[in-house]
Amino acid sequence: MHAGGGRRRTLFASLYVASFILYTAFSQTPAAGKTKPSDALDSNYGPALAAADHFLQFWQSGDVENGMALLSTHAKAGITVDGLDRFFSNPVSAYEIGLGKRLKHGSYEFPIAVIDAPGNRRRHRHFSSIIVVNTGNSDWAVDKLP
């Protein structure tokens, strides 16, 4: 792999997330789902989504150091160092982030689908969610791992 591969993958993931947000924002009507787009897409939605996306990128690349930096105090207290190492040593080959919902002021939950790492013969899609919280000063952290 050449040096530019990581930047292209990050750019592709960012463009994918941005296009997915625009698609879901304009294609859903309030009656189409449980979360109204106007409820989810407030001024904090973008930074919360970006934090979730960055964390998933770090997981995908196995970057435990940067991934751990995005964890909230609550999330760090709920996992051991060995557990965190195991989590990041099992990267995913791809992920999708769905339309998030605001749980309360300063907290969002995003549904995600992850696809097993490329070493597996049969790829499996797993569904989970990730919760991010505002830790103050416009900083966002992952409060619940997928």
Q: What is the name of the CATH topology?
A: Nuclear Transport Factor 2, Chain: A
Q: Please give the count of helices.
A: 6
CATH architecture: Roll
Number of domains: 1
Structural class: alpha+beta
Q: Report the C-alpha radius of gyration, rounded.
A: 15 Å
Beta-strand proportion: 15-25%
Q: Say how many strands there are.
A: 5
Please estimate the helix content: 40-55%
Order of helix and strand elements from N to C terminus: HHHHHHEEEEE
Question: Mind sketching the topology for me?
Answer:
Blueprint: H1 5-27, H2 37-40, H3 45-61, H4 64-69, H5 73-77, H6 81-89, E1 94-97, E2 101-104, E3 107-115, E4 125-136, E5 139-144
Antiparallel strand pairs: 1-3, 2-3, 3-4, 4-5
Can you put this structure into words, describing what you see?
The chain has helices spanning 5-27, 37-40, 45-61, 64-69, 73-77, 81-89; strands spanning 94-97, 101-104, 107-115, 125-136, 139-144. Strands 1, 2, 3, 4 and 5 form a five-stranded antiparallel β-sheet that branches. The protein has six helices and five strands. It starts with a helix and ends with a strand. Mean pLDDT is 79; it is low at 26-33. It has one domain: Nuclear Transport Factor 2, Chain: A, CATH 3.10.450. It is globular, with a radius of gyration of 15 Å. It has 146 residues and is an alpha+beta fold. 44% of the residues lie in helices and 24% in strands.
Short description:
This protein is of the alpha+beta class.
Question: What would the keywords be for this entry?
Answer:
146 residues, alpha+beta, Nuclear Transport Factor 2, Chain: A, 24% strand, single chain
